[in-house]
Amino acid sequence: MLIKLVANSDKVQFIEVTELHDGQRLDNYLMRSLKGVPRSRVYRLIRKGEVRVNKKRCKPEQRLEPGDTIRIPPFFGVEPAAPGMITEGLKQLLIKSVIWEEEGALALNKPEGLAVHGGTGIRLGLVEALRQIRAEWQHAELVHRLDRDTSGVLLVAKNPKYLKDLQEQFKARTVKKQYLALVHGAWPAEITEVNAPLRKNEVAGGERVVKIDSDGKPARTQFQVLERFAHASLIAAHPETGRTHQIRVHCLSAGCPIVGDHKYIHSAHEGSDTALNKAKSVCLHAAKLDFRAGENGPSMSLEAPLGGRFLSLLEQLRGNAEIP
Length: 324
Description:
Layout: E1 13-16, H1 26-33, H2 39-47, E2 52-53, E3 69-72, H3 88-97, E4 98-102, E5 105-110, H4 126-133, E6 141-142, E7 151-157, H5 160-171, E8 176-184, E9 193-195, E10 198-202, E11 208-212, E12 220-228, E13 232-239, H6 246-253, E14 284-292, E15 299-303, H7 308-318
Parallel strand pairs: 7-14
Antiparallel strand pairs: 1-3, 2-3, 4-5, 5-7, 6-7, 8-13, 8-14, 9-12, 10-11, 12-13, 14-15
Helix pairs in contact: 3-4
C-alpha cells in the first residue's frame, strides 16, 4: 500500500513518486523528505539497501520517475524549527524583486542582507519566504546560491524537473555569470585572470573560511576594470567556476579585497577611517546571468540593476575626486 510519508515513523513506509518529482535525484528527494535526519545517515540508508526503488537497490544519483515506489525504512530525526512567518514588508519586497518568471522558474534581484535560506540563527530565508507568498511558489528550490550580503540575479526553480535542468547547466559551466565588485586600491592592469585552487576550512564556531590551496578545487575568474577612483576600482568579475567565496578570495589574492568584506581583508586596508572601510556590506553584485530557459528552451540573458548601499557608495565616489 502506498502512503504519504510520515515524519519520525517506526514502520516501513512506501511512497509513490508524482509528476512533481520527475527527474529528481533520489538523495535530494530524501534530504527534503526525511526532515532532521543527518545527511550521512541518508546516504548510509541507501548504501545498505534499506531504501529501495521499485523493490530494487538503488544509488543516490538515481533519477526518479512518476509511478516509482520508494521504500523508506523506519527513521527518526530532529524535528526542525518551523520557518518564521513572512512579514508584509518582505512579501512586497520579494514580489517587486522578481525580474523574470515562467512556468517552471523565476529569477529575482536578491536584496543585499537577505540570506537565501534559513539556517543557524536564521528562521526565514528567501526561499522559505517565497514558499509562503504564492501557491505556485510553494515548492520553490534554489538553483544556485548567493552570499547573504551579495545582491543580484538569483534563479529559483518551481519544480524538480526544472531544477535538474538548470543545475545541470551550472555543472556543465554553460551558464555565464557577470558580477560587479568595488575593490580597495588600484586593480593591477596586468591581472585579467586569477586561476587559483580554493579550499574550504572551518574555524571555531563552524564559520567557513576559504583559502587558496594547491590541494583545493580548481577555480578561475576573469576580471575587467570598469572605473578607477582615487582609492578604489570598480571591476567586472566573470567566474568560470562556482566555488564558495571564489570572487572574494581571488580579489584578495590580487591585493584588492572587496569593499565591505571584513572576512577577506588585506592588512594594508585595515584601520583606515574612510568611507570605504565604513561600508557595512560586501560590495558584490550578481549583475548578469546567461542560461537556457528549460530543456530545449530559448537562451536567456537576465540583468539586475544595482541598488542599495553598493550603489550609494559608488555614486559618492563618482561625485568626489577624493574619498572623505
